[in-house]
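Input (structure):
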C-alpha cells in the first residue's frame, strides 16, 4: 500500500469515528468542568515557576521540590478517593469536593511572600486534584459504552485542553497589560474555578447504582482481580514517568533559550492547541484500530521531543517542540485512561485509576528532584536526555509484552 493511501485510510477512519459518535451528556458536562478548571490551574502553573524564581528568589532545586511534593501528594490521594468512590458508589460528591478545595486555595498564591507559602498552596491544590481525578475518570467510564471509551476520554481531554491553552492566554494578557504583575494573574484565576465547581454541582448527574453491596476495594482479593494486564500497564507508566519531570522545567528551558518572560505562558497555548485538536480523533481512532500502536507512537514522540529540548538553541525550535509535545499528550493521556477502563471490572474502576496515579506519583517527586539536581549540577541536557532514555525503556517493555495491551476479553469487561 502506498504511503499516501495509508494516510488517507487512517484519516477516513478517524473522521468517520468522530462524526458518528453520540456521547452521553455527562461526558460533555465533565469536559466543560475540566475546561474551566484548567483555565484556573494553567493560569497559575504557566507563571508559577517564573514567579518562584524571579519574585520569590527560589532556586531550581526548590522548584523541583515544590512540584514533586505537590504532584506526589495528588497521586497518593487518588488511590484513596478512587477506592472510596467504588465503596461508597458516589463519585460526584468527591469530585465536587476536590474541585472546590483547589478553587478555595487559589488566593494563597496571590498573597505568597516566600516559597514556603507556594508549597502550602500547591500542596492543598493538589490534595483537591487527588480527591477529584479518580472518581471523575471512573464516572466517565460508568456512563459510556465500551465501544466509545476512547472517544469519551479523548473528548474530555480535548475540552480540558481548550481551558489549558485559554488559561495561559489570559495569563499572558494580564502580564502584558499589568507590567508583569504575577499576583494579579493568581487573583483572576479564581473566577473560572468558581464556575467549574458550580457547573459540576448543578449539571452532572450521578448514574443509578447497580448494586447496594459494599466491598473493600483495597483488600488483597480485589487488587488481585485487577489482573496482570492492568499491572503491566502500571509498570509501563512507572518506567515512563521516571523521566517525565515537572512541566516547570519546560518553561525554564524556554526562558533559557531566550523567549521573553511575558510570552512564556504562550508555550502552554501552543502545546494545548495540538493536544486539544488531537486527543478526541486519536481516542476515537483507537476505538476502531486498537490502542497499542498509538500509545507506542506517543511515547516515541516524547523521547524525540526531550532529545530536541536537550539540543535546541533557538526560540523557534522551542515553539515547534512545544507543539509536538501537545501531540504527544493527545496520543497518550486519553489512551491510558481508556486502557484502564478496558482492563478492570466496573466496580473497581475508581480504585484502578487511583492506583495507577499512586504509582506514577511515587516517582514524580524523585523524578522532579533529580531533574533539578541534574540541571544545576551537570546541565540542562542531562535532565532532558534522562527523560528520553526512560521513554525508550517504557517502549521496549510495552512492545515486549504487547499481548497485555490488546482489548479486554469479554470476561474481563464484565
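Output (sequence):
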Amino acid at each position: 500500500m502506498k504511503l499516501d493511501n495509508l494516510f488517507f485510510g487512517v484519516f477516513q477512519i478517524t473522521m468517520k469515528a468522530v462524526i458518528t459518535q453520540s456521547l452521553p451528556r455527562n461526558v460533555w458536562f465533565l469536559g466543560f468542568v475540566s475546561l474551566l478548571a484548567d483555565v484556573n490551574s494553567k493560569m497559575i502553573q504557566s507563571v508559577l515557576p517564573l514567579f518562584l524564581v524571579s519574585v520569590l528568589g527560589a532556586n531550581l532545586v526548590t522548584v523541583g521540590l515544590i512540584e514533586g511534593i505537590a504532584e506526589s501528594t495528588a497521586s497518593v490521594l487518588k488511590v484513596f478517593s478512587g477506592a472510596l468512590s467504588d465503596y461508597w458508589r458516589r463519585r460526584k460528591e468527591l469530585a465536587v469536593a476536590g474541585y472546590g478545595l483547589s478553587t478555595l486555595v487559589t488566593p494563597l498564591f496571590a498573597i505568597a511572600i516566600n516559597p514556603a507559602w507556594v508549597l502550602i498552596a500547591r500542596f492543598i491544590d493538589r490534595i483537591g486534584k487527588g480527591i477529584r481525578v479518580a472518581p471523575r475518570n471512573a464516572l466517565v467510564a460508568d456512563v459510556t459504552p465500551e465501544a466509545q471509551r476512547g472517544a469519551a476520554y479523548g473528548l474530555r481531554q480535548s475540552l480540558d485542553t481548550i481551558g489549558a491553552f485559554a488559561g495561559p492566554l489570559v495569563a499572558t494578557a494580564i502580564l502584558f497589560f499589568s507590567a508583569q504583575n504575577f499576583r494579579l494573574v493568581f487573583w483572576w484565576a479564581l473566577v473560572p474555578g468558581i464556575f467549574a465547581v458550580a457547573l459540576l454541582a448543578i449539571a452532572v448527574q450521578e448514574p443509578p447504582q447497580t448494586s447496594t453491596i459494599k466491598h473493600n476495594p483495597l483488600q488483597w482479593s480485589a487488587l488481585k482481580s485487577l489482573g496482570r494486564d492492568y499491572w503491566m500497564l502500571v509498570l509501563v507508566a512507572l518506567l515512563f514517568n521516571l523521566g517525565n519531570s515537572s512541566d516547570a522545567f519546560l518553561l525554564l528551558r524556554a526562558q533559557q533559550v531566550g523567549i521573553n518572560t511575558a510570552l512564556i505562558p504562550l508555550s502552554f497555548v501552543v502545546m494545548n492547541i495540538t493536544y486539544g485538536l488531537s486527543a478526541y480523533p486519536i481516542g476515537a481512532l483507537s476505538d476502531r484500530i486498537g490502542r497499542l500502536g498509538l500509545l507506542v507512537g506517543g511515547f516515541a514522540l516524547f523521547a524525540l521531543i526531550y532529545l530536541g529540548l536537550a539540543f535546541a538553541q533557538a526560540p523557534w525550535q522551542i515553539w515547534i517542540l512545544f507543539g509536538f509535545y501537545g501531540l504527544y499528550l493527545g496520543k497518550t493521556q486519553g489512551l491510558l485512561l481508556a486502557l484502564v477502563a478496558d482492563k478492570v471490572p466496573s466496580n473497581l474502576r475508581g480504585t484502578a485509576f487511583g492506583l495507577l496515579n499512586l504509582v506514577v506519583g511515587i516517582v514524580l517527586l524523585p523524578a522532579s528532584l533529580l531533574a533539578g539536581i541534574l540541571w544545576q549540577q551537570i546541565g540542562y541536557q542531562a535532565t532532558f536526555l534522562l527523560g528520553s532514555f526512560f521513554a525508550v525503556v517504557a517502549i521496549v517493555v510495552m512492545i515486549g509484552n504487547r499481548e497485555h495491551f490488546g482489548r479486554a476479553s469479554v470476561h474481563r469487561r464484565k
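Notes: The chain has 18 helices and no strands. Residues 60-88 form the longest helix (29 residues).
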